[in-house]
Amino acid sequence: MKMSLRARRMARNHKRLSSSAKLNLVSLMDIFTILVFFLMVNNGDVEVLSSDKNITLPESVSEQKPEATLTIKISNQDIIVQGRKIATIEQALTQKGNSLSDLGKELEYQLARAPAPTELEEQIGRSVIIMGDHEMPYKLLKRIMTTCAQTDYRDISLAVNSVPPAAEEEVQLAMRGG
Predict the structure, then answer these.
(1) Quick one: which of 5, 12, 137, 153 has the most CB atoms within 10 Å?
(2) CB of 163 within 8 A of CB of 59?
(3) What is the radius of gyration, based on Cα positions, of the chain?
(4) Residue 109's beta-bridge partner residues?
(5) How far apart are CA 118 and CA 121, in angstroms?
(6) Per-residue pLDDT tens digits for 114-167
(7) By three-state DSSP, how is residue 86 classified?
């Protein structure tokens, strides 16, 4: 007996739909491989300094990012170099002279542990990042910078919170107290 066109179509669809579906994973794996490489390549672009809840950084519209180097943190109470407490703010402010002896000793220790300087470091000095609270006295900042310069850390960067250039006027108004 001859099957009608409708019966043949129904049989063909029934046969096709009764088989289990197959998933082609090749293209899906290609997409994930590309995604992994993209994330690996772009992961190193972000430079974040470890923040300290005791330090409120000043704001700036600077777009130049600091390199990862020796970090000096100045909170409301302490001066910390690479995680080691060096002195209190009170001790630093009452110390005689333009430099800080305890900080100088620590910087000399860090200098001894560092590899030999490159030609550029010999010309401009080694790099250091000063991460100070925005209410830190200028006298203290000047002493810290003088001590750094005396121990061959002359390439000094100040850590700041980056704000967009459009907010520059707001920052200037806030600084003036208006």
Answers:
(1) 153
(2) yes
(3) 31
(4) none
(5) 5
(6) 888 888 888 888 888 888 877 888 888 899 999 988 988 888 888 777 666 655
(7) strand
